[in-house]
Design a protein that fits this description.
The complex is a heterodimer of chains A (246) and B (315). With 246 residues, chain A is mostly helical. Chain A contains 11 helices and no strands. Classes of the chains: A mainly alpha (246), B alpha/beta (315).
Amino acid sequence: MLTDILTVVWKERKTQLRQPGGRVRSALNLLLPFAFIGLYGPFSDADWVESPFVAIMCTIFSMVFLLTTIPDSFAGERERHTLPTLLASRLPDPAILMGKLAVAIGYGWGVVMLALLVGLVTANVVHWDEAPLMYAPRILAPAVIMSFLSASMIALAGVLVSLRAATVQGATQTLVTALMLPGVGLQILGLVVLSQPAWRAGMRQGIDSLDFVRVSLTVILVLLILDVLLMAAVLARFQRAKLIAQ
Amino acid sequence: MTETAIRAEGLSKHFGSVQAVKDLDLEVPAGIIFGFLGPNGSGKTTTINLLLGLLEPTGGRAEVLGFDVDTQADELRAHTGALLEHSGIYEQMSAEENLEYFGRIYRIPVGERDGRIRELLEQMGLWERRGERAGTWSRGMQQKLAVARALMHRPAVVFLDEPTAGLDVVAASALREDLANLVVSEGATVFLTTHNMAEAERLCDRVAVVRNGELLAVGHPDELRARAGGPHVEIFGSAFDEQVLTRLRAQPTVTSVVQQNGHLSVQLQESADTAELVSLLVGAGARVEEVRRGQASLEEAFLTMMEEEECSPTS
């Protein structure tokens, strides 16, 4: 099985940067996490290595990265008419699935981890104070775990959408819309809360009293549950007969 | 290998109310090129997808190389190759990389894989351009590459779904030639769908004709041609008057005589002797300048079957 997964990984690596517009998209995808996590954050905040924003930024950017790459996984193969030939080969279903997921998650999460490392170097250069700076464990652990789990969540959701979509554009639109809906809901809720002084004060008090470690653990648990549910849905959906009959 | 490469018994597939394949009974002996002929929408591609285990049959069963298409699809696909409706070539990768990918998929050891890639690309006349991106190639070259890819792991059975569709005459002819040569050298069983009768006539050892998912006929191309009528002769010359025609029609081996554009078109029974007929014509005063004896083409046989099917009460 591992050999088959590595075969899919080999092919995905070969083709990902060679897609039309692939290099530009990849450059932009690299630029954003490096600009924010690697440069802007450590430049602007002397306590960057202690800031919960590190974990938040890592989580957001790994999701954004995946949003632009994962829709191509199956919808791209379908659009380019290579999917039936792939399915007619001896590759087992899990190998195709895992190979595509591994490349997408590895790429998105890897870039964010690299940006995290660059951010540490930048922080040490900009805010050097005799002793080397290091991310606080209560920040680093959630940054690493939450970004991985959120990348996995988008990858799985993207595969689920991509399996059904006829085109990459269609898959991207569906995925972005699905992710925007909860965000828009939260924004509306925020506006409602902020419009009332009493609620606003209550919210600020609530935020101030939050324990970041506890919040991180809750988020990790939620992401983990979502990942498991999405994986189950993807495995149920990924059937050759259904993919061919579309 | 089993004596029969492909066997289907009552194989059926419907999509909602559409019956794509209906009670298909088929036996394809190993080592031949089997043509699966039918007009567009007759169920040819669905049949290939069923035989590759990519679709679940709604009725009946089928085996390829002894593997059940429903329950042993993974094993089956390990021993078969396919060129489906589209070439399935990764246009961003080079020809060499496309073959390498499928060599990896079928776990061909590195040394053997490199040799096999060279062998196939050389046979197809593509070796010199192996490093170019396949997307920059003509459709004919991409189809050749797709055939090479389908044969990469030396499969015992190869499914080719209209391999020359959309190619110009020259490219189609070149691909057919390469295909025939490769099949002979590889010794594989080929299941070829096409609606190009000349292609089937040139390549296939046996053919089956389908329409609306139903099998109409199966046999050697000669047997199918015979169904469209026996041999016929075209006689060119002059002085084909009524007396000559009457004497010709009186012959027991002559089925019909039609005079058109200054020549005679004569349908014969299998036992007819053309030389005797020519003597008869000359003796009756006709001037014979040229005689061409022929058989109904597979295309004529195919059209006859389609017409018969259309006229049958069940259709």
